[in-house]
Amino acid sequence: MSDEAERSRREPGPTPGHHHWFDDEAGPVVRPYAMTRGRTSAATRHRLDLIAVVVPEPAADDPGRDQTLSPEHVEIVERCSEQPQSIAELAAGLDLPVGVVRVLVGDLVEDELVHVTRPVPPAELPDVSILREVINGLRAL
Amino acid sequence: MAFGRSSRTKPFVEPVTLKILVAGGFGVGKTTLVGAVSEIRPLRTEEVLTEAGRPVDDLHGVETKTTTTVAMDFGRITLREDLVLYLFGTPGQDRFWFLWDELAQGALGAIVLADTRRLEDSFAAIDYFERRGIPFTVAVNCFEGAQRFPAESVRGALDLDPEVELLMCDARDRESVKNVLVAVVQHALVLADRSPAAVTT
Ligand SMILES: Nc1nc2c(ncn2[C@@H]2O[C@H](COP(=O)(O)OP(=O)(O)OP(=O)(O)O)[C@@H](O)[C@H]2O)c(=O)[nH]1
Ligand SMILES: [Mg+2]
């Protein structure tokens, strides 16, 4: 990643208009990846869906556990122990980029502290009965 | 006790999660709409951008790649303990269009918000969902002071398929937004009922 940053910095002087996306909505993400020791989600075996839900395993309740977990790992387990949460919710709640949360959750899956549910597979519409329940649920809000 | 929890007796409920996208031009009311029906929080994602603000297509090598974060609106609607609907408000600027591919994967449907003063701003979103066969509903956000047009003339201007629903809405109003969401899901239901996969299951 730092290589790429180097390269883009060495690019011939961009016109100011060219880099206008470096505004409040867009900024560098180098620092959060320190938590993942530089690993990006590309390094994990599969990309966890934004709405896949992270559910604690019984081992997550066990006091004698892995000392190698970072505070962010611990906080993810804590939040999910309150209520299972999606990858997107964890990212928003922890104010971390989605990619960082993917890596951290991937670690927890590897340690068998959590598992991740599969959302409806892409390119496949949810079951008709679920859609009916969604409509009823929305009307009842 | 790093996690400060006593052991549980009850297994966790694993909710079914679904998502609906909220698209539309700059300043059309996407954030307002998501906030009207859910607690809204910004979600940060990060992407590799090129000079042109598009995914890298290898034509020019890696020298112009930049990793950047993009914020989008994100809301949760808990329909039942075991059924959760998430709303994703996509960034309005064209330069973030590529982000949609991940968001659109597995989406139940989409809302395209439109403003009659700038209808052309919603063309790109309509094209996008049409091409991918994602069920969508067009919601015209009725700002005060904007001239009201009959739904038929708006439909014509947007060149909508007859089965795509077009509704007038107030993005600030919870009931109004609920109606739009119901319309999207109903449209998805019609398509699901018709699809061969649904028949065989
Ligand atoms: N009068 C009126 N104002 C609205 C309505 N919906 C949104 N607004 C206002 O219009 C402005 C833009 O609304 P946003 O919800 O921020 O629009 P957005 O689509 O999220 O904008 P971007 O994220 O910048 O593309 C805000 O000042 C809102 O308060 C509406 O239905 N009626
Ligand atoms: Mg907005």
TrEMBL record, chain A:
Residues 1-12 have a biased composition (Basic and acidic residues). This is DUF742 domain-containing protein. Residues 1-25 are annotated as: Disordered. It holds the Pfam family DUF742. InterPro entries: DUF742 (IPR007995). The lineage of its organism: Bacteria, Bacillati, Actinomycetota, Actinomycetes, Kitasatosporales. It comes from the Bacteria.
TrEMBL record, chain B:
Pfam families: ATP_bind_1. One of its GO terms (molecular function) is GTP binding. Signal peptide: none annotated. This is Signal recognition particle receptor subunit beta. It comes from Streptomyces nymphaeiformis. Belongs to the GPN-loop GTPase family. Keywords: GTP-binding, Hydrolase, Nucleotide-binding, Receptor.
